[in-house]
Write a structure and sequence with these properties.
Layout (H helix, E strand, L loop, with lengths): L12 H15 L2 H13 L4 H4 L3 H16 L5 E8 L4 H4 L18 E8 L2 E8 L5 H12 L13
């Protein structure tokens, strides 16, 4: 998963794009993904782990997620990339909206991204009162020359 270590300094937008581009090219190899999946489910094959009641495993995994997993991140972006549909459907679809992972007490703002035709749709999930991050990000895109249109979910 691409990551930015802010302890190393401030990154420009171009540096972030470069990091994400190269990490995604490296980490979307089918063999690497298979290795990661095998590692993630490998523990469930052990007889000792299989004998532990699910409620205890869920409690343990929730604890590990909040103490180690979510602690490493401030937000999550889920990018579906460019969505392709059969030619006969293209004229019937204007755009796609992805619902981002639900925010929680550790990851308070999340974003879902989906591209279709010449549109890129960003959907934010936010449990904070401030919308400053979204405002700043969309202002940045505008300054970079991108046309930005803001819609509320209720307007879609």
């Amino acid at each position: 998963m691409p990551e930015i270590d802010t302890r190393l300094g401030i990154y420009s937008f171009d540096e972030i794009l470069k990091i994400v581009y190269h990490k995604m090219r490296l980490e979307t190899d089918e063999k690497l993904i298979s290795k990661i999946i095998s590692r993630n489910v490998g523990g469930e094959k052990k007889m000792l782990v299989r004998g532990i009641p699910l409620i205890l495993k869920n409690l343990f995994l929730r604890y590990k997620y909040y103490t180690e997993g979510a602690y490493q991140y401030c937000s999550v972006i889920s990018n579906l990339g460019k969505i392709k549909v059969p030619d006969k459907l293209k004229d019937k679809i204007d755009y796609f909206v992805i619902t981002p992972p639900p925010p929680n007490k550790k990851l308070k703002i999340n974003c879902g991204v989906a591209g279709f035709h010449d549109k890129l749709v960003l959907s934010f999930g936010n449990i904070t009162r401030s919308k400053e991050l979204e405002r700043y990000f969309l202002s940045f895109l505008t300054k970079e020359g991108m046309h930005v249109q803001i819609k509320k979910l209720s307007d879609l």
